[in-house]
Amino acid sequence: MSARTPYMQLYADAARQAIPLDIMVELTHRCTFRCRHCYIPDFHAPELLTTSRVLRLLDELAEMGTLRLALSGGELFLRPDWLAIATRARRLGFELRLFSNGSTVTGPIADAIAPLHAAVEVSLYSLDRETFERVTRTPGSFDRTMRGIELLRERDIPVLLKATMTIHTHARVADVHAFAASIGADCISSPGIMPRKDGTTGPLSQRVPEALLLPYYAGPFAGSTVPTECVPDRRDDGPLCAAASRSANITAAGDVLPCVILPMPAGNICQQSFREIWEDSPVMRRIRAIRRRDLIACDTCSKLAYCARCHAQALVEDGDLYGLSTWACEHAGVLEEVARRRKA
Fold first, then answer.
1. What is the pLDDT of residues 166-203, one digit of tens each?
2. What pTM was computed for the model?
3. In the 8-state DSSP scheme, what is residue 91?
4. How does residue 4 score in pLDDT terms, banded at 50, 70 and 90?
5. What is the C-alpha to C-alpha distance for residues 203 and 316, in angstroms, rounded to an integer?
6. How far, in Å, CA of 279 to CA of 202, rounded?
7. 8 Å CB contact between 166 and 135
8. Could you tell me the strand order of the sheet in which 186-190 lies?
9. Which band of pLDDT confidence, cut at 50, 70 and 90, is reported for residue 235?
10. What are the φ and ψ backbone dihedral angles of 70, each rounded to 5 degrees?
């Protein structure tokens, strides 16, 4: 394998030592959109995390070594205390990212974000109004999102545009990348559509068939998704996934999940400390302990170099935490074909 960058090594070391380097906290389930592919199962679920509990959580995370913190929703800015929480997060030194659909960003909100030196991540599905609102199922959402992005960039706030690729949007992803470059924003695109957090698979109807994504993976926007020539070292006995090893998700109800879509609550911070859940939960320990040797069907697969297998997808979509992931197998086949064409 190619040598790891210092950043990659940091992540690998954190995973081996079970340091929660990267945490996402959902402050609300409420949202102004109803996106077809959204993983939130109930937009009306109660917000059980009080301001004081979230602030104590931030102190816990700082003590445990967390570096990257994402505040999310639902729609983050619907939570009235978002600024108090974000301000504490920056004072504690976290690299802070604020997730928003952009539609709720007003001038005063943008003014409040600017001194935080935090990045804002905004989903921008298409530059075509009709297509965008077909995804969000919310009339007027395109104009509000574009205005929110404009307000952020007027204040030189770092913006990352996320071009999630769906059956409605995948063919025009280049437009979003070009727009991001024109306004000085970063952009990432991904075809990764996941099940809902409760394990239901409704959003998967929006997933682009892997065979149709061959031009994307062969193009300029897939980044490091496609390895040039990479054979994993089977002696590497480290964690296979960030879930429960260096990252976790905390919902607005206080549930701690190994990752954002693995429907296996490990505990609830309304009853326990995050440290107790992270270190002692049987769920966290189980996910953290999975190694390549436990995945019998995968360990000897010829496509292992191209595999993006996800524990959560294997469990929810195929019924076995340790089994094959149909999506990952299809994905690996497409990446192998891209590599073959490049070599040829």
1. 999 999 999 999 999 999 999 999 998 999 999 999 99
2. 0.93
3. H
4. low
5. 12
6. 33
7. yes
8. 186-190, 159-164, 119-123, 95-100, 68-72, 22-26, 247-250, 255-257, 267-268
9. very low
10. -110, 130
